[in-house]
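Deliverable D4.2, example record:
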Amino acid sequence: MDHGDEGAGRAAQSRRKDARRNKEALLDAAAAVFVTSGVDAPVRDIAARAGVGLGTIYRHFPTRADLIIAVYRHQVDACAEAGPALLETSATPYDALGRWIDRFVDFLVTKHGLAAVLQSDSAGFDALHAYFLDRLVPVCARLLEAAAAAGEIRADVDAYALMRGVGNLCVGADSDPRYDARRLVELLVAGLRRPH
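Output generated by the structure prediction step:
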């Protein structure tokens, strides 16, 4: 392989990395716009926030459904990747668990509108729901195991049941200003502590 081929390979790799970064920036922008304006927000608002042209968005995501699904998956991935990072950087595993649950609540509360849109395509929704569980339940389980191994929480907490409980506490959080889902989730997480 001559140096010309090597240089071309590096350039192609750099272009792929740039494209991936641009796509992630676009998904972050779309998620932010969806949170403030709902999933029916004009695509031009997303393009403006991401600093790209409309053509760039349509090249990556030909339909609004494609964009919504990509945003949902991107947010699930970010939440999943946060778990191990929080275990590394938090003072204790229990602290990591609490911070991750807080992030999970952010995801649940801010994805309003996504689920409703996806209900119209039940096969697509089922696939996304399976993706959500496959990615997030093992992360939650790892955080619970670490906190239990450190003697901070009881050892009999099931990750799926905890996530389901948190999800149920978040239902309706945006429709009643007197209802503070985050406060109730904090009480739930505090209840995991082992009695002294």
